[in-house]
Amino acid sequence: HGGEVVVCSGGPSRVQQVIREALARGADRALHVEDEGLGAADAFTAAAALSAAMAEQKFDLILTGLQSDDQGHAQFGPVLAEKLGIPHSTIIMEVNVDPSTGSGLRVKRELEGGWFQYVTMPLPALLTIQSGINQLRYATLKGIMAAKKKEIRKVTVPDGLAPTQTIVGLAVPTRSKQKQMITGS
Predict the structure, then answer these.
(1) Is there a contact between 77 and 90 (Cβ–Cβ < 8 Å)?
(2) Residue 41 and residue 164 in contact, taking contact as beta carbons nearer than 8 Å
(3) Hey, how many other C-beta atoms are within 10 angstroms of the C-beta on 104?
(4) Per-residue 3-state assignment (H helix, E strand, C coil) for the chain
(5) Shortest CA distance to 84 belongs to which of 35, 36, 32, 127?
(6) Prior bond to 124 cis, omega within 30?
(7) Are the CB atoms for 80 and 63 separated by under 8 Å?
(8) pLDDT tens across 27-60, in order?
(9) Cα end-to-end span (Å), the chain
């Protein structure tokens, strides 16, 4: 359906390596909200930082992963959509242009217990994509060389942005052979 692919990411300067990989795989340009604190930021803080950079772009469709490998809260996509004021849907397995309108989307969501839900949505929209719905595109040598020349626009974090959550500790669950009987009337 045509269009331009823009990679948007936030974090420390080392994030540029991942952005370059996306450019080598075919993305047209990139936005990088560069800040050391975003590497370990909670979903609300990261979404606030990226939404400020993305709002002026007026994207038709924003795709995010379902959840991050580090914190795994699955909240970044929905929070980003709310900050941008656009509809969103999560756990997407399939995306098609809505045949009835020709301009919206018809998406397939994965639910619990092997069930699926089909949703029609207007554009602009944000979708959190379930892993494994498509074949991974590998970078070609031509793509790698072209990526070196593509611009990565650096954007600063908005003033006054502070983390809303703090991790005070992590612990591995311990095994125990205790039992507690709960009785009630």
Answers:
(1) yes
(2) no
(3) 16
(4) CCCCCEEEEEECCCHHHHHHHHHHCCCCEEEEEECHHHHHCCHHHHHHHHHHHHHHHCCCEEEEECCCCCCCCCCHHHHHHHHHCCCEEEEEEEEEECCCCCCCEEEEEECHHHCEEEEEECCCEEEEECCCCCCCCCCCHHHHHHHCCCCEEEECCCCCCCCCCCCCCCCCCCCCCCCCCCCCC
(5) 127
(6) yes
(7) no
(8) 999 999 998 877 778 888 888 999 988 988 889 9
(9) 62
- For the segment 51-73, what is each residue's pLDDT rounded down to a tens digit? 988 988 889 999 998 766 556 67
Residue whose token pair is 């952005």: 19
Q: Provide the residue type at 122 as one letter.
A: P
Question: Two tokens at 111?
Answer: 């639910």
User: In what order do the strands lie in the sheet containing 116-121?
Assistant: 61-65, 125-129, 88-97, 105-110, 116-121
